[in-house]
Design brief:
Elements (H helix, E strand, L loop, with lengths): L1 H29 L2 E2 L2 H4 L23 H14 L5 E6 L2 E6 L3 H8 L11 H11 L10
Antiparallel strand pairs: 1-3, 2-3
Helix pairs in contact: 3-4
């Protein structure tokens, strides 16, 4: 009987270790980054679950090139801002995108002059954009 208990204990320990480590092994082998649990919660849910959306809206009469420069600094500092989501064996990982200019183009939307005139226009624009599905190939 003690031999059986010894085997069960080792089997349980190995099963727990594999469960905790396998995502890191896959990420290392494929050159990916493991998605943290809090990020996973954004993707494994149902459509009725409330979500907090954080957004920064830049409003100015100056040139869009300035916004591209500022956003470029942010993208360089934050890995998630320049990574896409990759699904491997049902698990989600981050993969860094090689071309920063493509990342910036995907994040900046230049609107025609006069599109945003007041706070209600901003709310309307955001309300129209939120139902769009987020593509995994972009940050």
């Amino acid at each position: 009987m003690p031999v059986l208990a010894y085997g069960v204990a080792w089997g349980l320990a190995i099963a727990i270790a594999v469960t905790l480590v396998y995502r890191h092994v896959i990420a290392f082998v494929l050159g990916l980054s493991v998605m943290p649990v809090m990020d996973l919660n954004c993707f494994y849910t149902n459509k009725e679950t409330p979500a907090n959306v954080m957004s920064a809206t830049w409003l100015s009469g100056s040139k869009p090139e300035y916004a591209i420069t500022v956003l470029g600094r942010i993208v360089n500092q934050h890995f998630k801002a320049r990574a896409r989501i990759v699904k491997v064996y049902g698990d989600l990982y981050y993969k860094e995108l090689p071309d920063q200019q493509e990342v910036l183009k995907s994040q900046i939307k230049v609107l025609p002059a006069g599109t945003i005139r007041c706070q209600a226009d901003i709310h309307s624009f955001i309300a129209n954009q939120l139902p769009n599905e987020m593509p995994f190939e972009l940050p």
